[in-house]
Amino acid sequence: MAQTPVLEHPAKRTRRRMTRMERHNLLVGLAFISPWIIGFVVFTLYPMLASLKYSFTDFTGILASKQHFFANYQMMFSDDRFWKAVVNTLYMVLISVPLNLIFSFLCAILLNFKVRGQSFYRVIFFLPSIVPAIASTMLWIWILRPDTGLLAALLNFIGIDGPNWFLDPLWAKPALIMLGIWGIGGTIIIYLSGLQDVSQTLLESAELDGANWWQRLRNITIPMVSPITLFNLITGVIVMFQYFSQAYVFAKFASIGKADIIVGRPMDSTLFYSVFLYDKFTNFRYGYASAMAWVMFLVILLCTVALLKVSNRFTYYAG
Amino acid sequence: MATQTSYQRPLSVKVRKFIEQFGKHLLIWVVALFFFIPFIWMVSTSLKVKTDVGRFPPNFLPRENKTIAIDGEEYPLFTLSTAGGGQEVVAVMDYEGSEAVVFDPQYPAETRKVPQAQLSEILIVKFRWENYRDALLRASRPGLDVNFFTYLKNSLIIAFFSIIGTLVSCTPVAYAFARIKFPGRDGLFIFVLATMMLPFQVTMIPLFKLFNETLRWGDTFLPLIVPTFFANAWDVFLLRQFFKTIPSEMSDAARVDGANEWQIFTRIIIPLSIPVISTIAVFTFLWAWNDFTGPLIYLQSHQNFTMALGLQDFQGQREILWNQLMAASVIFTVPIIVAFFFLQKQFIQGIKLTGGKEG
Known about the structure:
The complex is a heterodimer. By secondary structure, chain A is an all-alpha fold. Chain A has helices at residues 10-15, 20-54, 71-77, 80-111, 118-126, 133-144, 150-157, 169-182, 185-197, 200-208, 213-224, 226-241, 245-254, 273-282, 286-311. Chain A has a single domain, classed as MetI-like (MetI-like fold). Mean pLDDT of chain B is 85; it is low at 1-6.
């Protein structure tokens, strides 16, 4: 086979001037990606720099802004509500994200059983995840109602007096975690496709060698889906830092009958990072909110890099 | 002995197999109920009358008080328990304090007063489909000519233009990253992917100012639609992965015949990419349909609300009509479920692609 001379020494390429072909390709390529370039500059790069600038000013959108450098950051770090939001968000990252992963993995194992009606079961497990977030939040608020809710009835039936999920700050987050687990269908699908890639011959030979179900799961399946676990973990953490809609609607419901809607009800227990940021934004504290956004961005970056670093020790990549 | 074991063995294997299968089904069902019951509950509530909604303990089948029509008027039927332990069926005409004015359905003229405590409703199963009509036509705010159809229309407009924008802008960008070898391409592509990590909160405030103050697009759909016309990393990635799988012999042959990149892109690559394009159309629809934060930030007046905004606005009223709210939630959810059943393959493929499975 004749080889086309495309591959060149990389060092040579950088020093050499572009050929006519390359110049042509560059122009055509740039023309094709121009929508992205324009979009990036106008809708990403400029706003990023602008919000970085706002974060160093006391900009409110109306009043003339004056520089006051790290005042927003100082204010933020000495604000009790800010820390409350951080703790609430960490609660979700440390409890909700792992629970979602474990539960999705177990569901994927169930759905991987060779039983009749497998595809029907898969649809049932998956459907809740495509219910719009606002609709599912309203539905769960209705289910969780302490007076006439379905869950209260079920708990009553087995002799438990259910908590008031909307008034008790201890129980508001577990309610949101439950709502989250209801919608893990997407994660289940990703795990399921991972399980289907686990080598059957490896599992069978392990079985012949006398490994029981648990040993096969522990030593073959879990390591082989570890890249998927890593992916789900990273996206789960990123999504959780931006957790907003469900908490916002939940708090709005918990505020019914109160004089005003206060985010984070009951008693700031659903005051998550993004909820607090949105609250600052609607109160025209643009500088403060921008500072919060940048801190969040940096934390997400750090988390992702840290997870990728740590994961090198735990994930297994075939081939 | 020997014949016995060889005879019994297949049977016991069969029994074990059966028990194993049964156990698996049972296990799956226990978990499936957790996913399924809330669904049933949503539909069930949406078909209940108001008095049935608040009933405790709740029931899954919507029930209504049985009525009897006398002279064109409907009267609810109750069982009256008398002191002597007897029971009779009565119709209730009116309530006076703790007492009710009742009559025997056979003799409508003879009314009498009995304590309400002695009455219990006679219930029949009845689906109240009118809730759906009421939820759709319900005026969201008095004085404004806004109902759920308005929200439905707004959501569809935004979703439609978002799909157009995403497809028109992402395909050429993805084509360049997949097929045009220009200097710096691969580094730039990694940069495109890195922008996926940026939380929207970082750009939220300057964008809000840009759209509201500089461009004066506040309270319109434009801030939600226009950015989709400038490509996003996620869809560019998906399309690029697909374009890369198309054999390059085809475009090379076309190039020899004198076709330029644009012609190769529109005449060869696009027609071959219908599966991935429909996947992206479905996911853009989902995304636009479900989006809550965008409309919450940019849309203020009720006539511009989307379904997501309108739904959570239900609870802004003094009294929440849960049956109508659930009916509205069903209406909001049904298009997605229908889309899922028609486009199951695209759904699953899209999710797997996000999981990096086929990347």
